[in-house]
Fold each of these.
Amino acid sequence: MAMVKTENLIHDYVIRDEEGNVSGKVRAVDGVNLEVKPGQFIAVLGHNGSGKSTLAKHLNALLFPTGGAVWIDGMKTDDPDQLWNIRQEAGMIFQNPDNQIIGQVVEEDVGFGPENMGVPTKEIWERVEEALKTVGMWEYRKKSPNRLSGGQKQRVSIAGVIAMHPKYIIMDEPTAMLDPGGRREVIRAARALNDVEKITIILITHNMEEAIYADHIFVMAKGKIALQGTPHQVFSRVDEMKALHLDVPVATMVAHKLREHGLNIPEGILTREELGEALGLES
Amino acid sequence: MSLKIDDITYVYEKGTAMSVNALDHISLEIPDGQFIGLVGHTGSGKSTFVQMLNGLLAPTTGHVYWNGQDVHEKGFDRRKLRASVGLVFQYPEHQLFEADVLSDVEFGPKNLGLSEAECKERAVEALRHVNLPEEFWDKSPFDLSGGQQRRAAIAGVLAMHPSILILDEPTAGLDPLGRDEILNMVRGMKEKLRITIVLVSHSMDDVAQYADRILVMNAGKIMMDDTPEKVFSRYKELEAIGLSAPQVVYIMQYLKERGLPVKTNILTVDEAVDEILAHRGELNV
């Protein structure tokens, strides 16, 4: 069964005037069909206003379809009886770590989710330990979140989500506010969750270098899926990506321009290692 | 117009158990006409430092001089300094509040006590500089897109006619095109209006591409103050303090390790392409 499936998903935001009467509609998601298999690492790209964050909010039932349908692990999101089960399976990480941390002490913050779910105390502590170790923050368990760096705070947020034992996690630009070190930490944690714990990850990002690790990329534009495929397939289409106001990874761009200068190397190069290979250098 | 920082320190919560040395003996000068990139990991002291530059914070020890005058001496008009050294905070669009865009941009000049006509003139000029089309000027700032809101907020600071403009992460949360638009606009301000720019950024690719001088902060100190080429050639030191080099530096370094004798002090994709093509004869393609 698909972890996530949408069928002709439509979302309209309703605009109201000062009296509260409906004065217009904006279609943010327009007929999206996608399927995510368990254990996949998915990246969603798209310019500001392309509909990707609205889409993300449908994938853990924070929003409900105007048209079409969304299933999470076989449960339909507009079925009120399933809401609690869906949110338990789907964790979400947002851009700003400061808006997601509530505890005075790191381990309390991580324990908050499972406690709310009614997990027995002994098991809460086991989950907290496991979650903090997974993101490499165990030695900070007694610290105040205020004293952590952005990357550390974001890893604590991720630990808070994994302590709830979700089957999949949606990350909405989790590195946008972090310094380069923080970005590396968070992406490393996300990849480890996927590789080791087999948790399905949907990563929304503006940073193309982060998308090269994905199994599959969806590129959104005007509420629709404009391009999709493996990173190699998507980033081979440099001109289309530019037209969608997006970048490609730097190694891809270098290779693309070398091709334009007549070098015989393939499109869709993603890393420096692949570039070295294509240039025929000894390893 | 120049800003001189003379051996400043700043201690948060001085004299308590929580005392932190946020700035630790910093001295430097900011002359006219530079495009300065300021980088450092979260908590390295960047925000404290930029608040020193326009007198929002006073140093615990040391001095800040604006055109030779100590800005914290009695009788110095710090309001003038704040107009001359404009500070655009992170997510400046959160500070928009007026009923329409034009009034919002006029708010700063009005506080300077300028005439209504003069305020409007400055607002119009600032909105043109940030490339916000006239059709948006009478709209509510909240009806604009995120990128447009940000440009309106920057216009509000620009209307104060600063000679130094400090921007704290002006591209956070923008897509690649929005990022390029803002940074090209800032570069245009430096070139056309001769404004000195201080760009605080977590993107090494951005500062490498736009800045002509880079300040690297770590633990409250200025660890490097040099050209982008020199700063990014020390990328191992940068990594040790939570930063990095632009991607293209790693690519060139890697190609060199694999035996292609390319230069590695390269900062942009175009330079990298030219350098690789210069070694075309040594490639196996």
Amino acid sequence: MSRIKVELKKEQIDKIKTICQSFNNNGGELINVLHKVQGTFGYLPAEIQEVVAQELNEPIAKVYGVVTFYSFFTMLPKGKHPISICTGTACYVRGAEKVLDELKKELKIKVGETTSDGKFSISCLRCVGACGLAPVLMVGNKTYGRVAPEMVKDILKEYEAM
Amino acid sequence: MSEYKIHALVCSGTGCRASESDMVVENLKTEIAKQGLSDFAQVVKTGCFGFCEKGPIVKLIPDNTFYTQVKPADAREIVEEHIVKGRKVERLLYTDPDSKEAVNDSKSMNFYKKQIRIALRNCGVINPENIDEYIARDGYEALGKVLSEMTPEGAIKIIMDSGLRGRGGGGFPTGLKWEITRKEVNEQKYVVCNADEGDPGAFMDRSILEGDPHTVLEAMAINGYCTGASKGLIYIRAEYPLAIERLKIAIEQAREYGLLGERILGSNFNFDVELRYGAGAFVCGEETALIHSMEGLRGEPTLKPPFPSVEGYLKKPTNVNNVETYANIPVIFNKGAAWFASIGTEKSKGTKVFALAGKVNNVGLIEVPMGITLREVIFEIGGGIKDGKKFKAVQTGGPSGGCLVEKDLDTPIDYDNLIAAGSMMGSGGMIIMDEDDCMVDVAKFFLDFTVEESCGKCAPCRVGNKRLYELLNKITDGKGEKADIDRLINLGSVIKDTSLCGLGQTSPNPVLSTIKNFRNEYDAHVLDKKCPAGVCKSLMVYEIVEENCVGCTACARACPVGAISGERKEVHKIDPTLCIKCGACEERCKFNAVIVK
Amino acid sequence: METIKLTIDNQVVEVPKGTTIYKAAKQLEIDIPVLCYMDLKALGIEHKPGGCRICSVEVEGRRNLAPSCSTEATEGMVVKTHSMRVMNARKTVMELILSDHPKDCLVCAKSGNCDLQDLSVKLGIRDIPNQDIAEMSTYRKDFSPSIIRELDKCIMCRRCETMCNQVQSVGALSAVNRGFQAVVAPAFEMDLEHSTCTYCGQCVAVCPTGALTEHDHTNKLIEDLANPAKTVVVQTAPAVRAALGEEFGMEAGTLVTGQMVTALRQLGFDYVFDTDWAADLTIMEEGTELLDRLTRHLNGDKDVKLPILTSCCPGWVNFFEQQFTDLLDIPSSARSPQQMFGAIAKTYFADQIKKKREDMVVVSIMPCLAKKYECQRDEFKVDGNPDVDYSISTRELAALIKRANMDLKKMPQSDFDNPLGESTGAGVIFGATGGVIEAAVRTAYEVYTKKKLAKVDFEQIRGMEGIRSAEVDLDGFTLKIGIAHGLGNARKLLEDVRAGKSEYHAIEIMACPGGCIGGGGQPLHHGDLSVLKKRTEAIYREDAGKPIRKSHENPYITKIYEEFLGKPMSEKAHHLLHTHYTDKSKKIIYLK
């Protein structure tokens, strides 16, 4: 997993410690802790994982092993407007691949990456359950249904000024 | 519910919310208040109605008026016309595609006619955030009955008699699974609800949790009583925020009502439920992987036996059932095992929820009795193939399943028939394909998914699926050789034969079943270097039809790689060695002179 | 015991209930091929992740093939281990594994000693179908001072992960990533050097391929031996002589001390010395430190730290510098025998032969991979010149002897050189778990009580139990001793110390199971307890045969104190023979 270097402030470390304590510093709760921490910080850089490992008294290698196993966890910050595209079967059959290609072309990034200005990131997710609207993409919490490749430019435009 | 004369049920499932159904709710409320009818009409946010194709759905009862594709701006008209004046808003009614007539009563819609809703009985009917509405529809009655009148053995016998089988994929008899855990002697046991719905095209579990969370809690408590477990865990995908929210509310309410916690309903039975979050790993749908994930580990499966029913979470006996299985439990106690067993086929009882999607007119969530045929599902409930195209295949069982074809359409759907036909029930994804879908590409799509989701523990799945994918890629790239198809078959069979868990043991199914049913399509790719469906880019050839070309040079100017040559007013030519098949020329030509072969 | 009967390849076999198909077949002398499977009987660990699927067999009535290593045999089961379905599956799976494995066997460090290669031969693999379109995993090669990781060769058997976590509790390695990208690595796929790795080398000892190998210094050694300007001095650790013979087809437990000395001399070393001599020196320093702390403790000094922990095992030192940084003042400050030897060789001995430090090359032959790191530590350098230049393992030495066309079996015996070659039985037993503390007790008893020991052997200290304790009567005072081997066991004792619950006065810790005889640089023992036992017996046999068996009676030790060091823990001794420990837990985890 590619990574970036982060310097944690004391308050941030304390915040992580508080989260770990709320799970009794129990290593069995590692995944719940990581969810909470990612929810707070947006991503899980190495430095954060190190604090979690220390607090839960688990080897850092194990924490990293768990973080890299689950696709929900990320070590890179997402864009200001994270774009998720559904690659479930229903969306695939209705042309999600072409929409994704268009997105990649427009933003000049690959899946899992963030644009250099930090605005957009692309990730794939499995069925969001809006198969009636396939193909579906989400920008932040907003869902766009029946997306055609031609619509991608306009959707991005909505956020460019934001 | 009774004090209101009219209830406006608005779908608040994820699909409809994506089309602003929340705004519809708000606007309806405002309009009703404006008309001073707040004591007369009530707006209820419900779970999924299933008819996602036409969402957002607003249903008015008592007369079952079914409004489709309602926009926030339509709220005013619905209130002013329908609620105030009693006149239906014709333009929002569902129109039958055959008769082209508006349907007044949802019960006469083809989409609903053949459905029997047991697991989905409350979805689209009650407000999932209000326990009273669940209780008003016989909720927690089954739990009360079991606790006060039955022994665990007796209750399990009812489940056994009902013939209920696990709805998560494997179809293991639920009663038997419970009995195994019950027999284990241990001071601590667990019951688990598997809500890690991973099939990329199935969303029934989420819809149940969003639309009727209490049914799962009630069933888990019954399971706890039967198996001797005091603790329940729901393992749910973190990507389901709405379902999580509603479950949290439901758990709080159930605790408040004394339906979870200590001495439930005055009995000696203690039971409580906690949530555990999945983090995006399809393999965690497999029981042992799910348990490791709940323990804070990588979700890698381990060999069974020991089965979780004997040695599971924290090495304690653990009974794992999926959401849809649980949703059937309370009804079985309320209506009886015999009633439940009267629905379905000899070996598969009750109903099954399917997520109908793909190239079908009525995309949505349906619940049908076991034994219904694929034809009924696709052509009656599903309203046939979109845009009048030709049916080609239906994929069931998700990445573990296979493709079924025309000849399978009249096979009654049940666990065993689907397996015999080369597919499987799976969790209930049902994707319809038409003549425009390339089956090699479809197989590649599923393999891409499995490669992504393989945990990497065992060699056949970790490396084998990757190699299958590469071979398929070679074929869709136009570089396939005849031996590659045999290689796919051998490799696929060995991966099935040697993989550690269910994921690898089924991952070659999409490849093997498409080879079996569409061998000619594979041959066309490999021998003729053609993609009959016109999907595989590398196999397409762009050509200029001499008769149509006027020599306007538009195509040559559009070509990004300079593959088109020709003088003005003369016939142009495409150099196939340079062409990257981007399609720009075809798009630009106004004379239909560019064709794809 | 309840037994069951099953049929394997048409033969009926009766086995205890709970036996796996693999072991039941073994009973019939049917050797089902395995790859990821590893049975560490000595440690009570059976590693059977069921990952490679090479051991798949056909079970009548079962839908798919069964992994024999982890499938329990049941009554009436009918198993076929070589049906054509099985043979095809096994070959296909092997082709898959090899399709993601480099084919550079000719120059691979593991060539000729590789489980994967052997299996490929056995299964008759001649071609990898579709290799031309097969993507292969690629990773950075990671060179640490002790261990080289070449993860392109990792087959995900996960044996190293088991050793690092379950046995050693070090936690440096974990499976990371998912699917095709999955591999065993330290956190953030950083270099081993920056991880919590202790270089105990137990991962290397079990790796079935060339993914984990020792940092090999033999080619450097050949250059130095060929250089006439260099005086090359070698020291050999006690455990080497008890295992080296195995590499030449000798029975485990064959002592080859004399043959080894001859071989080293024939290889061209200028002086062939014995680390055992330095072990005697260690006892003088460490034993004195123990008595000093004990006496102060008995005199009511509240500041004195007890228990004292031995410090001759470099893997163990790395472990506590990483993970028990609050206990850094408890271990003895005495350097390990390897380092004491180096410090003396490049001062006292260099003076005697009138050589300059920089013209000397001190090499050690060790059963250990952590020693490679230890001799590179800054504490053990003078102006950048290390006391011990480098260390080679028992396996590397065996390979070098073979490379020089020598057969150890046919070697005549000869003695070590002096003055750094003469040792006592106490020095020899450093090689086995419990040996260091027994050697220390032999000396401490006589120094403390000023009486002669009636019996030199302290059998109550010996054994293979992971954690042991013993009490020794020092003329009225009961000395309480704890012993742990394997870092997982060490952790348990240390956690007691940390919690203030430990009642011991002294604890001996060895990082590797069995002590140095089971070290990460030894001939592979595959977890076979009998091999470790035989090596241990050999060590004690050499001890029993020695005319002198107590360190303080070694005349060359007495001499060096008289001529050079003064007395134990003198200022000079402190300078040359002691060290300090630093908190290494705060690692910079960034990738290079």
